[in-house]
Amino acid sequence: MADAITTRAALLPAVGTRLRVVDLELDPPGPGEVRVRLHASGVCSDDLNAFDGSVEVPCPLVLGHEGAGVVEEVGEGIEALRVGDHVALSWAPYCGRCEECLRDLPHLCGTAWPKMLAGGLLDGTTRLRFGGATVHHYCFLSSFAERAVVPERSCVRIPKDVPFDVAALVGCAVASGVCAVWRTAGVRPGERVAVFGLGGTGLAAVVGAVAAGAADIVAVDSQEIRLERARELGATARVRWEGSPADVAAAVRDASGGGVDYAFEARGRPAAAEAALMSTRIRGAAVLCGIPRADATITLPALSIPRMERRVLGSIYGSARPDRDFPLILDLHRRGHLPLDRLISHRLPLAEADAAMDLVRSGDATRVILDLE
Fold first, then answer.
1. What are the angstrom distances between the C-alpha of 203 and each of 199, 200, 292, 320, 371?
2. What whole-number distance in Å separates Cα of residue 235 and Cα of residue 227?
3. Is the CA virtual torsion 161, 367, 38, 330 positive or negative?
4. How much of the chain is in helix, strand and coil states, percent to nearest 5?
5. Residue 94 CB coordination number (10 Å)
6. Lesser CB count within 10 Å: N end or C end of the chain?
7. Identical fold between 5-157+339-371 and 176-316
8. What is the CATH class of 5-157+339-371?
9. Contact status, residue 159 vs residue 86, Cβ threshold 8 Å
10. Cα(58)–Cα(125) distance, rounded to whole angstroms?
11. For residues 361, 228, 197 and 115, what is the CA-based torsion angle, rounded to 10 degrees?
12. What is the pTM of this model?
């Protein structure tokens, strides 16, 4: 067996502590795994959920679930990837055999999902150590590092002229927002859209709606700077979150000429989910793609659902198939139809990973990239 190597990584020693940039031991890839030299990682609000304990994960831990880089080593049984391939990473590998995979729902794989936050790879074991002690993986990726061992099916080959920073973002926020519009909802040209919550996923939904040909795109947020970013990316109207969910929904209906066909809630806020449904017109749908707290509940106006044939659609990862949708999204970016690079507001080195988390927590950042070159 090949020897372990050393990799620089941002380590979370325990929930609620600060990140420490240290040298870790990284074991070679096992069967069905590859080692990737990472060049860029996104910093996502979902990383904050693990950082502050909103999501239970074992520590010590290396965070990060948006990454892109170059394949350095392949494990036993790897046929689709070769050393030197450029890849974008997906946190949703799939087995191809379970009921969900056979139903063409690989992003909901019944084999991978139960292991997602257990701290290991698909075989349940880890490849990281610090001072001889086990270090856990996050969402199979742990991209806050110069190198990572990941499942083969977390890797999507990309053209070598695609910038790594853009490719990294596609791995979570961009796919979650763009594909919620394209795949979960299936927005058609001329339809009306509202987006509630203008973080990375929400702004990706805005650019996805523009690319889909939506006639009206109403951006909703409590921060003026985020509303302005949405306007720059193609939103046709802006609504500041003020007052009750009913007040905000009424403002969206006014801004869209009577209500939208699809309202995307991208922050996981129950009040926003309620406003999203009430902002739709007859046979409209609220698409809930934000991740709420585990104990959150939503109260909806029940009569309006059958009376107006309103619908509520859940969306995780935008119902994306990474092997199909990552290349499509990146091709449209290269052709100027999806300005994904404009989502990036901050770039920091790995040494400032803790400051990057603070930026995401503050709400001042759209998307933060860790430069791992």
1. 6, 5, 18, 17, 22
2. 9
3. negative
4. 35, 25, 40
5. 25
6. N
7. no
8. alpha beta
9. yes
10. 13
11. -60
12. 0.94
Assign domain 176-316 to its CATH architecture: 3-Layer(aba) Sandwich (3.40)
- Tokens 């959150």 correspond to 296
The length of the chain, given as a count of residues:
373
SS3 171: helix
Q: Which of 299, 285, 293, 195 is nearest to 245 (CA)?
A: 299
| CA atoms lying within 13 Å on the CB side of residue 325 | 26
Average pLDDT along the chain, 373 residues, taken 10 residues at a time: 88 93 97 98 89 87 97 95 97 95 94 94 96 95 98 96 96 96 98 96 97 98 94 97 97 98 96 97 97 88 93 97 96 95 95 94 89 92
The 3-state DSSP class for residue 61 equals: strand
Query: What number of CA atoms fall less than 13 Å from residue 92's CA on the CB side?
Result: 23
